[in-house]
Design a protein that fits this description.
mainly alpha, 69% helix
């Protein structure tokens, strides 16, 4: 089976890579998304649901900054410098996955008070928060769809044997 590096990352070192690179960030992001809907609908920006939303937002943002900081030098840079990419679908999958750092770091920064201090009220802050969540959902789904696509469909070439150092362990 032909796999993108994104899918290979999730498939190797079972179950750890799946938990580290998919389950933890997705469960936290989905917790943020679901609690966000409740908060925006009820406009109750204080209490247990907001605390859960804020905590999950900060944790997922900081967590994904760590994922990004690990994957870029250990995977993206070597793949790029050695020409190890499996075609455009492979690049889209990995770049879209890593692009999740922007909205996830954004929600963490917002909840840590690093950005958005000039917004007029809690509802405006939650609106920006929701925009970050929406952006994350877009890039995460692009990553998942591209990641599950056979990279050879867009002219990608699969190596006969993985080159040493390009495995996403």
């Amino acid at each position: 089976m032909n796999m993108t590096h994104y899918m290979e990352l999730l498939a190797v070192n079972q179950p750890w890579n799946l938990l580290i690179f998919m389950a933890v960030p997705v469960i936290l992001a989905e917790t943020v998304a679901v609690t966000e809907l409740y908060l925006l609908y009820t406009r109750r920006y204080h209490g247990a649901v907001r605390t859960l939303n804020r905590t999950a937002s900060i944790v997922v943002g900081l967590y994904f900054i760590g994922v990004f900081a690990y994957l870029v030098p250990n995977v993206v840079v070597p793949l790029t410098s050695d020409g190890g990419w499996r075609g455009p679908i492979d690049v889209v999958a990995v770049v879209a996955y890593l692009a999740g750092v922007v909205p996830l770091a954004g929600i963490a920064a917002l909840d840590l008070g690093l950005i958005g201090r000039g917004l007029k009220d809690d509802h405006a802050r939650m609106g920006l928060h929701a925009a970050f969540v929406g952006l994350f959902l877009i890039v995460a789904h692009i990553a998942m769809i591209a990641g599950m696509t056979d990279p050879t469909l867009a002219g990608g070439v699969m190596p006969q044997q993985p080159a040493h150092g390009h495995e996403m362990h």
